[in-house]
Amino acid sequence: MAGIPKDSIKIVLNRNPAHVALKNNDGIWIEPGEQMDNYISVYQQLAKKNKDFSFWFVLAGLIFQTFMFIILTTALAFFLSRSLAIYMMILSAILTFGYILFDFIMFKTRSVPYGDACVALLMNKSETFFVLLTIVITYLLFFTFI
Questions:
Q1: Among residues 12, 13, 7, 45, which one has the least CA distance to residue 27?
Q2: Is there a contact between 139 and 89 (Cβ–Cβ < 8 Å)?
Q3: Of 42-51, 57-66, 80-89, 136-145, which gets the smallest average pLDDT?
Q4: Where exactly are the structural domains of the chain?
Q5: How far apart are the first and last CA of the chain?
Q6: Gap between the Cα atoms of 18 and 45, Å rounded
Q7: Cβ distance 2 to 56 under 8 Å?
Q8: How many angstroms separate the CA atoms of 118 and 125, rounded?
Q9: pLDDT tens-digit profile of 84-114?
């Protein structure tokens, strides 16, 4: 996943916020947040050979969330309730765009990237705008067709 050996990476969904943990050379799982300096150095060691994947590693959460949103809202609309699907779309859009907006506000006020969108923006502006625009278009299409 993202150029990192699968035995050295795990997705942690049962903690807030959900994140990706990386295993260091000593076999200890390192998590972002309080261990950010260690996390970055472990990531750099694991991804040395695959630097092209760094951008996608950073945006993987937003992309995965959007993919799951498509699957769940489509299933809700066709198998359960169209109104429930619309409610879920609205809630998901508020949370996703609120997170991205908060990320940009924190970046602007602190001059340090706070979340995934701003880190990705510093890595590659045009691809970040493309990914974020694709996410916005995905939400708009679902609002239009569901």
A1: 7
A2: yes
A3: 42-51
A4: 6-46, 55-145
A5: 32
A6: 22
A7: yes
A8: 9
A9: 888 888 888 898 899 899 888 988 887 776 7
